[in-house]
Amino acid sequence: MDTNAYVAFLVIGALIVLVDGQFVYHSGKRYLANGQGESESGASMARLVAVLFHIATLGVLALISTIDFPGGTTPTAIVGRVGVFLLVLALAHGITIAVLSRQREEQVVEQINTRMNTPRPADHSLNDPVVSPVPGQEGRDPRVSPSIESGTPYTTDRY
Which of 92, 107, 112, 114 is nearest to 43 (CA)? Predict the structure, then answer.
């Protein structure tokens, strides 16, 4: 591959990496933004993931540029290299999305744990009776009505 084709491939690949990396960063920053408006930790995590994405994919671009493809300097060889690079870039993008998703899941679990550990105000309605007393009956707990078979209150002796 001649110098012009080599430089063209590297420029095209680097532009694709930079554009995709910006998508990863900005989308990841919004995805990891905290519900309370505190997006500093989400932005820093998205920045770290985006930098890792840029470094890894630019390294893959450099490695693919050294592989000999059939066709030499023809546009077909350049398109073939770009195609292989796009497939590898798609794989890297998928891995990056999985990393961001994992971070989001950890944030959600942490928020749930925080909510579960905060004390709640006492709910006094839990002490209210479950059933209403029979009209005319005194007290909080109703009496058991007689069984149909014997006409007497239920007993636990039979079982």
Answer: 107
